[in-house]
């Protein structure tokens, strides 16, 4: 059997399996239950977050022999054909390669026919914003007088490029980026089902590299597996994702917060000889200090940030000894030098200069502490503490 990529093998087949789009799923399920299904939907949102998967599940829900139902049976002929992509009544069209007026005219002819074996004829048009300027009016005509047996589902990563005349005829649903936590859970589930050993840290690096797209994270996981086999080591993931600089960022910031300029310079040198792009490294460092500061400010609410648990714990431990004021100052220095860093001809030297400045920074005393000290002083003055001390 051919190797089936994870994104396809684990494509959600029911609404319950859809990750991170609860708001859309809930609305669609209710519409089916209340028998108030629109004739045209448009699903907008980033790539790889489940738009066409939801369109297919919706098609199954509407055409299932036991339906319309929000929980299609998955076993009737209609359900199985839709899963396999062979249903005569559910057509998937790639808007990027069928973008001309001729294709849309053909589609208009096509919608006239009744469904062959199901309730509805369903047209799923992916990347609908790619249609040509001439094709949209032709599509609009169909949307204005849709036959009762036809349902359109459009998907697009660029909703703003779809003409308002089309949008106003559609029920619009916004798909969201998927959080690292949600992607991690899914990757973990896949690892278990596929009998792949991988650490929680490895899982969360892959999830973060997906950048909000479950499909991207899954294909990164595919690459990791084909590189390491079923026993995935952290070092493999780091290497494959180019994450080695993250380790150095942690080492560097640790030395910085311990006010150890010598160690800082040593870490930079090692990174330099390991072949890091110093300008990119600077950006990673900037982002790292932003996270440190945010976690400091958020305190117990830090779990709300979209960071993996592993990173969160590490960052919390790292920032423990530093005050918010100090972290703020360090971030300010990095931000103020960002532009210069981008322009410099000698990024290593520039990075070293900035880091040394940061390492020698005088510790700022938090304002609460100063107020506390003043209050103490005041009490002692009021209580005559000084007089007693003077006479003794
Ligand atoms: Zn069915």
Quickly list its features.
Zinc Finger, Delta Prime, domain 3; five-stranded parallel β-sheet; 20 helices; 7% strand; binds zinc ion
Fold blueprint:
Elements: H1 6-9, H2 22-33, E1 40-44, H3 51-63, H4 77-84, E2 90-94, H5 101-110, E3 121-126, H6 135-144, E4 150-156, H7 164-167, E5 171-174, H8 180-193, H9 200-209, H10 214-228, H11 234-241, H12 244-257, H13 261-273, H14 278-298, H15 309-319, H16 324-336, H17 338-343, H18 347-359, H19 367-382, H20 385-391
Helix pairs in contact: 3-4, 5-6, 8-9, 9-10, 9-11, 12-13, 12-14, 13-18, 14-15, 14-16
General description of the model:
α8 packs across α9 (200-209). The protein is α/β, with parallel strands linked by helices and 392 residues long. The protein has three domains: 6-174, P-loop containing nucleotide triphosphate hydrolases (Rossmann fold), CATH 3.40.50; 180-241, Helicase, Ruva Protein, domain 3, CATH 1.10.8.60; 244-359, Zinc Finger, Delta Prime, domain 3 (Up-down Bundle). The protein contains 20 helices and five strands. It starts with 5 loop residues before the first helix and ends with a helix. Zinc ion (ZN) binds next to α4.
Give helix % range: 55-70%
Number of structural domains: 3
Strand order in space, largest sheet: 2-3-4-1-5
Classified by CATH, the class of the largest domain is: Alpha Beta
Question: Could you tell me the mean pLDDT?
Answer: 89
| Biggest beta sheet summary | 5 strands, parallel
Could you please say which CATH topology of the largest domain applies here? Rossmann fold
Q: Please tell me how large the radius of gyration is.
A: 29 Å
Terminal-residue CA separation: 94 Å
- CATH architecture classification name of the largest domain: 3-Layer(aba) Sandwich
Along the chain, the helix and strand elements come as: HHEHHEHEHEHEHHHHHHHHHHHHH
What is the overall number of helices?
A: 20
Overall body shape: elongated
Structural class: alpha/beta
Cofactors and ligands: zinc ion
What are the low-pLDDT stretches, counting only 5+ consecutive residues below 50?
none
């Amino acid at each position: 059997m051919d190797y089936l990529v994870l994104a396809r093998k684990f494509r959600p087949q029911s609404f319950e399996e859809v990750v991170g789009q609860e708001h859309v799923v809930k609305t669609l399920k209710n519409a089916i239950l209340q028998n108030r299904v629109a004739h045209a939907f448009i699903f907008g949102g980033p790539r790889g977050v489940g738009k066409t998967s939801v369109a297919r599940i919706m098609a199954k829900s509407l055409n299932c022999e036991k339906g319309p139902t929000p929980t299609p049976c998955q076993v009737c002929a209609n359900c199985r054909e839709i899963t396999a992509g062979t249903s005569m009544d559910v057509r998937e069209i790639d808007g990027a390669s069928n973008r001309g007026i001729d294709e849309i005219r053909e589609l208009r002819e096509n919608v006239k026919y009744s469904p062959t074996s199901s309730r509805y004829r369903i047209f799923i048009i992916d990347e609908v914003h790619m249609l040509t300027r001439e094709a949209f009016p032709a599509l609009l005509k169909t949307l204005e007088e849709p036959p009762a047996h036809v349902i359109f589902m459009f998907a697009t990563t660029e909703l703003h490029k779809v003409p308002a005349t089309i949008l106003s005829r559609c029920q619009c649903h916004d798909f969201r980026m998927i959080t690292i936590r949600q992607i991690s859970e899914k990757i973990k589930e896949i690892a278990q089902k596929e009998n792949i050993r991988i650490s929680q840290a490895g899982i969360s690096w892959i999830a973060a590299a997906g950048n909000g797209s479950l499909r991207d994270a899954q294909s990164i996981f595919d690459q990791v597996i084909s590189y390491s086999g079923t026993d995935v080591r952290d070092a493999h993931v780091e290497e494959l994702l180019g994450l080695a600089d993250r380790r150095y960022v942690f080492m560097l910031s640790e030395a910085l917060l311990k006010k150890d300029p010598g160690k800082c310079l040593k870490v930079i040198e090692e990174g330099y000889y390991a072949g890091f792009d110093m300008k990119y490294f600077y950006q990673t460092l900037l982002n790292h200090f932003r996270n440190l500061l945010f976690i400091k400010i958020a305190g117990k609410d830090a779990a709300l940030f979209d960071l993996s648990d592993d990173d969160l714990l590490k960052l919390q431990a790292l920032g423990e000894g530093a005050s918010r004021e100090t972290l703020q100052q360090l971030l300010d220095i990095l931000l103020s030098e960002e532009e210069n860093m981008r322009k410099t001809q000698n990024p290593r030297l520039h990075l070293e200069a900035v880091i040394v400045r940061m390492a020698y920074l005088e510790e700022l005393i938090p304002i609460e502490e100063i107020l506390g000290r003043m209050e103490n002083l005041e009490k002692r003055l009021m209580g005559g503490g000084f007089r007693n001390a003077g006479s003794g």
